[in-house]
Amino acid sequence: MEKRQRIFWISLIILLGICGIWIAVSRLSVREGNYAVVKVDGKIICQLPLAEERVVMIDGKNHIRLKVVVDRGSVFVEHSDCPDKICEQKGRIDKVNENIICLPARTVIEIQGTEVDMVDVVV
User: Fold this and answer.
1) What is the chain's percent helix, strand, coil content, to nearest 5?
2) CB–CB of 48/75 below 8 Å?
3) Closest Cα partner for 118 from 68, 45, 56, 55?
4) How far apart are CA 21 and CA 38, in angstroms?
5) Residues 44-83: pLDDT tens digits?
6) What predicted TM-score, i.e. pTM, was given to this entire model?
7) DSSP letter assigned to residue 83
8) How far is it, in rounded angstroms, from Cα 105 to Cα 55?
9) Secondary structure class of 87 (helix, strand, coil)
10) Within 13 Å of residue 48, how many CA atoms lie on the same side as its CB?
11) Quick check: helix, strand or coil at residue 57?
12) Which of 22, 34, 46 is nearest to 113 (CA)?
């Protein structure tokens, strides 16, 4: 085998090894979340523990209501009055920093690992 070919194959093997290690580390660093924080127009509306199964109706902006379900350690939007239904199509989320966004309702559901500071909660 020619020297240039050998260098190419060794470089390729090293590159693939580095990519494999990077993928493994990134998958191991993803944590399961403990809470779903619901915000409407940037203000925290409620905090839902993922350990407690429940159904919550969220009144978003533009007269749009979302039916949010916490079930089996994850959260999802079961129904939304918005026209495009992208928030419903997102499916279940349960990892820290995952989110579901409904733009017409200006609503965000984000998974967090710990409780948030509830000082800014709108009642």
Assistant:
1) 30, 35, 35
2) yes
3) 45
4) 35
5) 999 999 999 999 999 999 999 999 999 999 999 999 999 9
6) 0.71
7) S
8) 18
9) helix
10) 28
11) strand
12) 34
Structure tokens at 44: 């925290």
Given CATH 2.60.320.10, say whether it is the number of domain 35-120.
yes
Name the residue with tokens 């429940």.
54
Give the H or E element holding residue 56: strand 54-59
DSSP state letters, 19-49: HHHHHHHHHHT--B-SEEEEEETTEEEEEEE
Q: Encode pLDDT of 73-113 as tens digits.
A: 999 999 999 999 999 999 999 998 899 999 999 999 999 98
Residue 30: CB partners within 8 Å, gap ≥ 6? 95, 96
The residues near 20 (Cβ < 8 Å, ≥ 6 apart) are: none
Place of tokens 């905090």: 47
Residue that has been written with the tokens 């998958």 in this structure: 27
State the distance between the two ends of the chain, measured CA to CA, in whole angstroms: 73
